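For reference, the entry.
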Amino acid sequence: MKNILIHSDNLQGLQYLIDKGYTGKVDLVYIDPPFATGGNFTITDGRASTISNSRKGEIAYSDMLKGKEFIDFLRERLVLIKELLSPMGSIYLHIDYKIGHYVKVMMDEVFGIENFRNDITRVKCNPKNFKRIGYGKHQGYDLVLHQNE
């Protein structure tokens, strides 16, 4: 199989892969969707590695969907991803703690509750020599699903 680079809305890209015959052939999917923050994220000074929600810079993407709209947006994509996953395929979905529990329930509906394997929690720890005593800032977690044959 040759490499494919698709530059489009991901919904169109997923449908393209289905149309090209990749149904049931994808072993691993990792997605990092917006987190329903309600903000605009920008590229500052032409550097793509500095995507943030600062006021200056060019808008990279808007994250305005919240609540049910966000869940429906994500569900539409996950239904197509499910179609693409092989019988042994896995999906890792990176999301934050504010919306993650809603996403988990929706993923159970799409993929089946029996396919949920784990969540991976990542906590940003205080760096060494940090003077303040406190808890690290929670950054988010990945929901892990593995298809059963």
